[in-house]
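User: Hey, quick favor. My workstation is busy. Could you predict this chain's structure for me?
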Amino acid sequence: MKIALLLVALIVLGGMAYLRLAPSDPARWHVDPAGLTSGGERRSVTLDATPPQALARLDTIALATPRTTRLAGSPEEGRITWITRSAVFGFPDYTTAAARPDGTGTLLTLHARQRFGRNDLGVNAARLDAWLGLLTAP
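Assistant: No problem, here it is.
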């Protein structure tokens, strides 16, 4: 019985370690949100700023979010992807933002999706809404 409990504990710990330590391939996650056709949450907003300015402001907001790091990109590139991990288990969610000129402003498109599972319980939508709320606040 003790051996069975030990094996279960090792399997659980191994799974948790995988969630936190599995590499994130930028080639898979750092893709243009406009080209994605399914899955995740999307938002778009037009801002009175240049594309690099809009992304730099959003990058500051994103990096101030707990457990969020930049995976790839930069404001100068016109696209940034961040990883935000859940507090307890460390599930990674990926958010990509791309900015392009749109008339006299910038069209900013965001796409957030989870790596594991099918339902994120609204976490990605809430994050996008919070980021955009901070970005567009006067």
